[in-house]
Amino acid sequence: MTDYTTLIDAETWVFIRETDAWYPPDAVGLTVEEQRAVYNRMCRAFHRGYPDGVTATDLTIDSGGHALPLRRYTRAGGSAAAAVLYFHGGGFVVGGLESHDDVCAEICGATGFDVISVDYRLAPEHRHPAAFDDAAAAFDWLSRDTQLPLVLAGDSAGGNLAAAVAHAARGRDRAAVGQVLIYPGLGGPMDRGSWITHAEAPMLSVRDILFYRDIRAGAKPTDGDPTAAPLQDTDFSGLPPTAIFTAECDPLSSDGELYRDRIVAAGGRARWTEERGLVHGYLRARRTVSRARDSFARIVEAIGEMGRADR
């Protein structure tokens, strides 16, 4: 059994306990409505505000006949060099424009890029492929709306969507110039690596992952469907430069390593960083935990590099 008392430092334990106080480990036993309520309260409690000069504007676009809400973040004082399409985490069940509002604002403030957050449809009201369809519609809209280089980014479930869009959009005239994935769930094999050693990790367990996966898919099988699980694609060529950041104490970490390996084996550019002693969801700890702060700086740097690579 993994000894988390030695892997996780005191700062991170404070963050874990604070998170548990808002969103307890047994939250999967709540109804979906109750989960969303406690998750939203937690996100409000962790909200850190906007950097100076960053403003946000809400808008809607059409996604297959329904209105898809977006939020665009801009920084005053100059023209953006790139646009970032950001997909929030939350297991495809919780989260939205508010849950990652300050994260997107900080990415905008640090890079100067426009950041567009996507309020994709959630399960169980909208099963797969609804979230992917919204993500793809947002990418298609943004590719028409701006001539800026497009960077895909997202955390957890949002990392899954970013990668799925990268796979679907490759080869187009307006493909992404890069993707930055933060502790993504990519549908890798569950019988090896971190799936075993960190099956009972704080903040996210394999039981939690299976719960959210089943809600997303319902009775519909997703085997071999890269729009649901990018690691189940059979072709990893032609993908944009990729940076993957995972937490050491997270069942999903091996997905990041395997995704890196498959892109590189197909002749692409990818790097994987496993952040020592961190846990799933550590973006919310970027102001209070040194390791999370350092990782967020690396994430922002990677997004900046992707957006400016062709300039």
What features would you describe in this structure?
Helix 5 crosses helix 6 (157-169). With 311 residues, this protein is of the alpha/beta class. Strands 1-2-4-3-5-6-7-8 form an eight-stranded mixed beta sheet, sandwiched between helices. It has helices spanning 4-7, 10-22, 32-46, 101-111, 130-145, 157-169, 194-197, 206-217, 253-265, 290-308, and strands at 54-63, 66-75, 83-87, 114-118, 150-155, 178-182, 242-249, 270-279. 39% of the residues lie in helices and 19% in strands.
Condensed summary:
By secondary structure, the chain is an alpha/beta fold.
Key structural traits:
eight-stranded mixed β-sheet, alpha/beta, 8 strands, 311 residues, globular, 39% helix
